[in-house]
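Dear colleague,

Thank you for sharing your sequence with our group. We've completed the structure prediction you requested, and as agreed, I am returning the results in plain text so they can be pasted directly into your records. Please verify that the sequence below matches your submission; if there's any discrepancy, let me know and we will rerun it promptly.
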Amino acid sequence: LLAFPAGLATLTLLAPFVYIQPAYALPPRLSNEAQLPGDVTRTEMRFGEAIRWIGYQVEKTRLEPGGELVITLYWQGLRPMTANDSAFIRLYGRDNQPVAVLDTYPGGGMWQTTRWTPGEIIADRYRLRLSDAVSTPAVLRMDVGFWNFDSKVFLPAYDGAGQPIGRPRHDIAAIVRSAEYSTPAIQYAIPNTQYSGMPRLSHATPISLTARREGRQLVVSTRWLATQDFIEAFTIFMHLVDEAGVLIAQADGPADNNNFPIRWWRQGDLVDDERTIDLPDGLAAGVYRLEYGFYRPIDGMRLPAFDAQDQPIPDAALREEIRIEN
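Please find the predicted structure tokens below.
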């Protein structure tokens, strides 16, 4: 009979320190940028005349539907403020669909902008849960800013040089389903599998490629398996050439309609890419060839390609012969 009230008494004594105090704890503040963690992604934006956004830090950059994004935003007040402006975070997934929204005063509501000390850096940490129904695979994009609750007006955004800009969305994480996209790394991305003896790129293998004509367009669908992690940005090139190798038409661009850029691909990811090639007027029926692969946009370097015997393929381009009818 004494155990129950004793337990309640213990819980009552601990609650202010274990539950209440952490929930209302003030955000950490840094005196200068030298104290920033080394893995902070720099943004260098300003909102209004007094708020500087230095960067952000993401705890996990690979999430599943229903997962939780833990992110820390680093703010700095440039001068004393007389208005308590609200911060907001907007998260977007595939096809720019909103997946999470947060409006709050900084510091989880505990460190309003009128309390900021000019020059001091605020480490503003948040948790945002994704819906279980969020579409995959996708890159998670974040929009951040400030607005005035009374006037409902967004503070204008400026770059580091003080020039007006829109609010760019930042790619902060990948959303994937482990059952669909991580397991294949164990099943396929090892020697002597059904995909090892076929033409491939150094970091990815086309599991399937289909092409269909729709009027004056050729729609090409490719399913890619990432066999290694990507750490750089690459673009897909898809060229239609004739039997003499003369370029007829092309459709170069980001993978998966930019929903899941290649730099976010990790070993085992399966990604479907569809692109449309505009066919020239008067194109004769006959046999043509698709030449495709990845290139690095900053310098045009193509990702190496290899044939079924593991020999380098000229021009680092995979090839697929197709017949086009009128």
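Summary note from our side: The longest strand covers residues 138-148.

Kind regards,
the structure core
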